[in-house]
Give the backbone structure.
Amino acid sequence: MAEEGYNGYTNYETWLVCLNIDNDKALYDDVRNIALGYSEKHDNYDTGCQIRIHLELTYWVLEYNIYKICDSWTERDWKEINWTEVAETRLEE
């Protein structure tokens, strides 16, 4: 995992999205399946990008210009997430 920045994660945004994923069984299973399936032929960066794309397509709320995954995420917050680290934590489990 990346160097410590916030509770062992790169930053607050990465920690919070991982917390949101971990606390929702359906979301957790969905993201874990993407990570496991995609990582067989791709590195963690590409796997993280695939997770990000899936979540963007699934959880973008155009009316409010946010991503709604348990918490509400602005585009600015979303861009701070270390998606490679999200993939790594899903593959370590």
Summary: The helical segments are 12-22, 25-39, 44-59, 75-80, 83-92.
